[in-house]
């Protein structure tokens, strides 16, 4: 493909289905992405969310790795405040030993959960404040230059699993630039600061052993179908599901109730989240993605395929790859 494309898989659990079917769908999506030349698939850490099955990110990566051959796999990302750096170094060092040269580690500062869930994870509510130091500690374990005397990550030491800083604000951009790491912006759901954050990252970037020049990955939604009408029908279903997931308070609401939420104010929030969405036929999606790449000043796009069915997501992978060939 002319534009480097990757996949962000949120491992959705559709209403009425199970985590087992969600994980099987993640395998199928990664296999289809690999077949069509995508660079990588990343999984995001979320907790206490009934509609997302990617809480144990490293376990999911391991399973998908066993069913794919070439495509890179990683976290997009691990929410480091939820974990000790040593534990994550050991997990991803193990993955790198299992799938050499295929593992990425994206790191986020947000907890990816609420306060009660943070308590259940046994994390200090202030743990995000040490995120820069934790990133450097983790990096030391993976490069074999530990910052904690007498402690190594086994497996992990010397694995040099590449790190990526994830963010949706100036903080992540500044940290990625200072550490000389690639920067991935979460514009697929938090678009507000995309352009100034990327500009700051590129302007302030300092080369490192991992990376000589700045590298930007930007998140974007795709709803691709064989006809524009079919894509718009999918968009309506996506908006409804987002409204229920975000504002339904864990209730099993009907489509009609989802539409009511959209009409009562959830619609504005959902529309903002979906600001950067390529919608329509392959030609329309290809044009939108190329325009977005320029807007984001991105080296790579990571796509959240938002169709509500596995069949829709698999077809969108094919159509998007073809559009950018």
Output the number of helix runs. 11
Largest sheet, in brief, is: 8 strands, parallel, barrel
Order of helices and strands: EHEHEHEHHEHEHEHHEHEH
Strand content: 15-25%
**Low-pLDDT sequence parts:** none
| Overall form | globular
In percent, how helical is the residue content?
Answer: 40-55%
Number of strands: 9
How many angstroms separate the termini? 4 Å
Rg: 19 Å
Let me know the average pLDDT: 95
Structural account:
The chain is an alpha/beta fold. The protein has eleven helices and nine strands. It has helices at 19-35, 57-66, 85-98, 115-120, 131-143, 170-179, 194-204, 228-247, 255-273, 282-296, 310-323, and strands at 5-9, 40-43, 72-79, 103-108, 163-167, 183-185, 216-224, 277-280, 300-305. Strands 1-2-3-4-5-6-7-9 form an eight-stranded parallel beta barrel, surrounded by eight helices. α1 (19-35) links the parallel β1 (5-9) and β2. α1 packs parallel to α11, α6 (170-179) packs parallel to α7 and α10 crosses α11 (310-323). 48% of the residues are buried.
Helix and strand arrangement:
Elements: E1 5-9, H1 19-35, E2 40-43, H2 57-66, E3 72-79, H3 85-98, E4 103-108, H4 115-120, H5 131-143, E5 163-167, H6 170-179, E6 183-185, H7 194-204, E7 216-224, H8 228-247, H9 255-273, E8 277-280, H10 282-296, E9 300-305, H11 310-323
Parallel strand pairs: 1-2, 1-9, 2-3, 3-4, 4-5, 5-6, 6-7, 7-8, 7-9
Helix pairs in contact: 1-11, 3-5, 6-7, 8-9, 10-11
